[in-house]
UniProtKB/TrEMBL annotation, chain A:
Recorded name of the encoding gene: dhaL
Enzymatic class: transferase
PROSITE patterns, A to Z: DHAL (PS51480)
Organism encoding this protein: Actinomadura fibrosa
Alphabetized NCBIfam families for the sequence: dha_L_ycgS (TIGR02365)
Molecular function via GO: phosphoenolpyruvate-glycerone phosphotransferase activity
Gene3D superfamilies: 1.25.40.340
Entry keywords, A to Z: Kinase, Transferase
Protein name: Dihydroxyacetone kinase subunit DhaL
Residue span(s) of domain DhaL: 14-215
This enzyme's EC code(s): 2.7.1.121
From TrEMBL, chain B:
E.C. numbers: 2.7.1.121
Domain named PTS EIIA type-4: residues: 1-132
Protein name: phosphoenolpyruvate--glycerone phosphotransferase
Organism, as annotated: Actinomadura fibrosa
Listed NCBIfam families: dha_pts
């Protein structure tokens, strides 16, 4: 299996598997912080739930035969998350990954443009399912600036790794910006003005997942198995 | 007959609402609970929803009632998946009622037990939103 063009300009199935594995590691390492954020304004299970879902996703991805295309790897990961995550993050992350996977189709690799389309499809799926708008204090507030950052970098002629870094930066800024917001979706919305002053856990975990993508696609990134 | 599925984070709540709806559907309504996560804990499970829909499906369609949050998301996701995957398709279709859980389930069960079609059962569930209590 090859990573495609030299310099890691395309992501293959193994590269996507590395992304999922790295995302699972980052979420697991931060599970306690995510759960603490969720305990402040939600039902206190986000870190635990997503950790469990991503662990199942890693298992599902590792059970796939070598050479599985990136789209199929994402769909398998999404399915596993849906069936193993009890909270709202299951359907939302599951939809995001499955929509992204469907957007990639059966191509052997995803180049920067294809991955951008996949991230946009993920955002669209999450918005459709959760009916959340920008500023509602949800994962959309991280995913939207991530997609915008990715697309702006792509338009500037950046390669996949640089686009992914721009997405990660956009997501991190977006998650940070949820702190003063009042929640309009989920359990936190029942708290009204009391939901302000805390970062949204879903936006925070979304930033981790996109950081994982930037890490594995970065040139020389240790987890970017597809480019070795 | 149109079947009903009650989706809740809590297994006990789903079973309780199903029990009440069956009783007020004069024992004829088919109401299946899908409560808690797959391991019996608190949460929602798309696999449990799938099983409950299969059990509630009598060929005339199934109405889903969900409590809140991930129950609603899981119900919507199940419907989206079922629409894509024809083998899984329930004859007559599966719809999510935009209705309060208890009142919606009771209204839907009453209408289903009267032999109404899917659209009428769904409308009965959704009309429960307007039943004021004071």
């Amino acid at each position: 299996m090859s990573a495609g063009a030299a310099g890691g300009r395309a992501l293959d199935g193994a590269g996507v598997a590395s992304w999922i594995r790295h995302a699972a590691r980052l979420v697991s390492a931060d599970a306690e912080r995510l759960t603490r954020l969720d305990a402040a304004i939600g039902d206190g299970d986000h870190g635990l739930n997503l950790d469990r879902g991503l662990t199942a996703a890693v298992e599902a991805v590792e059970a796939l035969p070598g050479g599985t295309p990136p789209g199929k790897v994402l769909i398998a990961a999404g399915r596993a998350i849906v069936s193993k995550t009890g909270g709202a993050s299951g359907p939302l992350y599951g939809t995001a990954l499955r929509r992204a996977g469907k957007a990639l189709g059966t191509a052997d690799t995803a180049d920067a443009a294809a991955l951008g389309d996949a991230l946009a499809a993920a955002l669209e799926g999450v918005r459709e399912l959760g009916q959340a708008a920008e500023g509602d204090k949800t994962m959309v507030d991280a995913l939207l600036p991530a997609v915008a950052g990715y697309e702006a970098a792509l338009a500037d002629g950046a390669d996949l790794a640089a686009c992914a870094r721009a997405a990660a930066d956009g997501a991190a800024r977006g998650a940070e910006a949820t702190v003063p917001l009042q929640a309009r979706k989920g359990r936190a919305s029942y708290l009204g003005p009391r939901s302000t002053g805390h970062m949204d856990p879903g936006a925070s975990s979304t930033a981790l997942v996109l950081r994982a993508l930037a890490d594995v696609t970065a040139e020389g990134g240790a987890a970017w198995s597809g480019s070795s | 007959m149109v079947g009903l599925v009650v989706i809740s984070h809590s297994r006990i709540l789903a079973e309780g609402v199903a029990e009440l709806a069956r009783a007020l559907g004069v024992g004829k309504a088919v109401v299946e609970p899908a409560g808690g996560d797959a391991d019996g804990g608190f949460g929602t499970s798309i696999d449990l929803v799938e099983r409950a829909v299969a059990a509630a499906d009598g060929g005339d369609g199934v109405v889903l009632l969900a409590d809140l949050g991930s129950s609603v998301l899981t119900a919507k996701m199940y419907i989206e998946d079922a629409a894509e995957d024809d083998e899984d398709g329930v004859q007559g279709g599966v719809v999510l009622a935009d209705a309060p859980l208890v009142e919606g389930a009771v209204a839907a069960a009453s209408m289903a037990a009267a032999g109404a079609d899917l659209a009428a059962v769904l409308a009965a569930a959704e009309s429960a939103r307007d039943h004021r209590k004071s």
